[in-house]
Amino acid sequence: MAGKDAVIRGYAEALFAIAEAEGDLPAVEDELFAFAKALEGRPELREAMTAPGLPVENKRSVIRDLIGKKANPHTVNVLGFLLEQGRARDLAKIIQGLADVAADRRRHVLAEVRSAVPLSDRRRAALQKALSTATGRDVEVKVVIDPTVIGGLITRMRDEVFDGTVAGRLQHARALLGST
User: Fold this and answer.
1) CA torsion sign, 164 to 170 to 176 to 178?
2) How many angstroms separate the CA atoms of 57 and 12, rounded?
3) Please, which pLDDT band fits residue 55 given cuts at 50, 70 and 90?
4) What is the DSSP string of 44-98?
5) For 117, which DSSP code?
6) Mean pLDDT, the chain, whole residue set
């Protein structure tokens, strides 16, 4: 598995270098991250991207139809490149690797925040500041819109998960009441 991890890291670093050289790193990084999370949440999209019998041009067409007009052209090109290289099954890992490389280079820790609704710039900044204060590190927040989150946020930083959702709090309260 270490060999595969090195390949994924290599792709992530190369994509980082390209996006940074083009001057589009923030936009490309955010759009790729959102696309990877869409793959996670939509099995039909994941199947289309990884179907061995579906030609790469058809997969590129799906990407163009989904994000082509809204996304930075470099984002669309990066996704197409990864498909052409036969890396469809590794898309999410490579994109996560890109986000990790970018955060490392900026000396930040990446926090994936799941919310049912988009966060305002003000709320995102406040959350970033609170997480930075709590961890003692510069935290970079990536927001994923997840309609299954009902009230509150779920935050994942590396291997730690902070569940601040209503459902999570109720579950915690049940566990406390059940143990008394």
Assistant:
1) negative
2) 23
3) very high
4) HHHHHHH-TTS-HHHHHHHHIIIIITTS-HHHHHHHHHHHHTT-GGGHHHHHHHH
5) S
6) 88
Residue-range domains of the chain with CATH: 1-106 (1.10.520.20), 108-180 (no CATH)
pLDDT tens digits, 89-108 = 899 899 989 988 888 888 78
For residues 167 and 164, give the distance between their C-alpha atoms in angstroms, rounded to a whole number.
Answer: 8
The token duo for 43 is: 């099995």
Q: What are phi and psi of 114, to 5 degrees?
A: -100, 130
| Chain CA centroid to CA 157, Å | 12
Whole-angstrom distance, CA of residue 98 vs CA of residue 170 = 35
Taking the C-alpha atoms of residue 78 and residue 91, their distance in angstroms, rounded to an integer, is 10
Please, is 44 exposed, middle or buried when counting C-beta atoms within 10 Å of its C-beta (0-12, 13-18, 19+)?
exposed
**What's the rounded Cα separation, in Å, for the pair 155 and 177?**
25
Residue type for position 24: D
Q: Is the pTM of this model over 0.70?
A: no
